[in-house]
Write a structure and sequence with these properties.
alpha/beta; Nucleotidyltransferase, domain 5; six-stranded mixed beta sheet; 14 helices; 37% helix; 19% strand
Length: 396
């Protein structure tokens, strides 16, 4: 069974075609700058060189058509006919409280996703555009929606409710939803496999660390808490997002700087985090280089990020009544040995001990804790596309 996985952003479309008989990625790529000058598709089929297709794309339907043409191209395609695509799995950012798992997409699901737009105005509209484009260009092909928020629907109410007037939750759905759920679900299950344990017997803290970052407390295979909240702004200090701050700071800055709603949203989401502290970049690689050259603000940004992750790890151990494993994933979590070491340093009292030699690893499955460490520390590359494809196969 071949599953096409689609992930639509506001001006991009990521895709993978996966043969689920052996989980091989037959082709993958990225359509970028959709609706903007310089639009192109970077496409790579199994065993072939990457190609760049430069064509105008006014919308996601144009982009998808170019992608589908590339998949069946005689020179750089992966299949001979589009009929070889048996299903499509769509990444959808926000399912609200309506979806606690992946679903087969029908008219009722699309209507429910439209109702969730106000909860994710930047993400759900392009997700819906991608779904509609696939339905138009691939009529009759079954489609599945896999939600970033679904994995966290197992959180107890005491974890997801905010200490605000309760009627605001009832009227507007103001509560913690959490994100990166597909990634947290994948790496926690994979960590259990690596450890040779049953996921239902484990207490795991999963650390999805990249430009956007979140932690999850996964107890017996279920999310019981997570650091992102009503929006992805809550939690860790991220690339450009501030994470947890005193809410009174918001109105104080608005008054002092003369900012309106759009202005303060832009400041908190796009000008804060490690970019705001360092003044260097939102890319941790750039910040690490600057810190190594003596830039004090760059080092401060790293220290703040690592301290916030460390605090959440300890907090989630308390939430679960202990912890068996800590898992690092995503761009920074998978590739930065120095960040993993800094985060785990000082957590020896919890039974966490990093092995410096084992920790010298990038982008592959590994146990990086010492043999004597009571809590196992792992690096597990995330694979959200495979998780989406697996859900698609299971539902269909």
């Amino acid at each position: 069974m071949n599953v096409l996985v689609i992930n639509c952003g506001s001006s991009s479309l990521k895709y993978q075609l996966i043969d689920m008989n052996n989980e091989n990625v037959l082709a993958k790529g990225l359509a970028e700058r959709i609706g903007i000058e310089g639009a192109r598709v970077k496409h790579e089929a199994l065993g072939m060189d990457k190609v760049v297709i430069e064509k105008p794309m006014t919308d996601h339907k144009d982009a998808l058509k170019i992608v589908l043409d590339a998949l069946v191209d005689t020179k750089h395609g992966a299949i001979k006919d589009l009929k070889e695509i048996n299903a499509v799995g769509h990444r959808v950012v926000h399912g609200g409280e309506k979806f606690s798992g992946s679903v087969v997409i029908d008219d009722d699901v699309i209507k429910a996703l439209e109702e969730c737009i106000e909860l994710a105005p930047l993400h759900n509209p392009p997700n819906l555009i991608g779904i509609r484009a696939c339905q138009e260009l691939m009529p009759g092909v079954p489609m599945v929606g896999v939600f970033d928020t679904a994995f966290h629907q197992t959180m107890p109410k005491s974890s997801y409710i905010y200490p605000l007037p309760y009627e605001l939750y009832e009227k507007y759905g103001i509560r913690k939803y959490g994100f990166h759920g597909t990634s947290h679900r994948f790496v926690s299950a994979r960590a259990a496999e690596i450890l040779g344990k049953d996921l239902k017997d484990l207490k795991i803290v999963t650390c999805h660390l990249g430009n956007g970052a979140s932690l999850a407390a996964v107890k017996n295979g279920e999310s019981v808490d997570t650091s992102m909240g009503f929006t992805p702004l809550e939690g860790l200090a991220m690339g450009t997002r501030c994470g947890d701050i005193d809410p009174a700071i918001v109105t104080f800055i608005m008054e002092k700087e003369g900012l309106d709603i759009d202005g303060i949203n832009n400041l908190l989401n796009k000008k804060s985090g490690v970019l705001g502290i360092s003044g260097v970049s939102s890319d941790f690689r750039d910040i690490e280089i600057a810190a190594s050259e003596g830039n004090e603000r760059a080092q401060l940004a790293l220290d703040k990020f690592n301290a916030r992750v460390k605090k959440y790890i300890a907090a989630y151990a308390a939430v679960m009544g202990g912890v068996d494993a800590v898992v690092f994933t995503a761009g920074l979590g998978e590739n930065s040995a120095s960040n993993r070491e800094a985060i785990c340093s000082g957590l020896e009292f919890m039974g966490i001990e990093i092995d410096k030699e084992k920790n010298n690893v990038r982008g592959k499955d590994a146990i990086v804790s010492t043999d004597n460490s009571k809590v196992k520390v792992l690096v597990v590359p995330t694979n959200e596309e495979l998780m989406i494809a697996k859900d698609t196969v299971e539902l269909l």
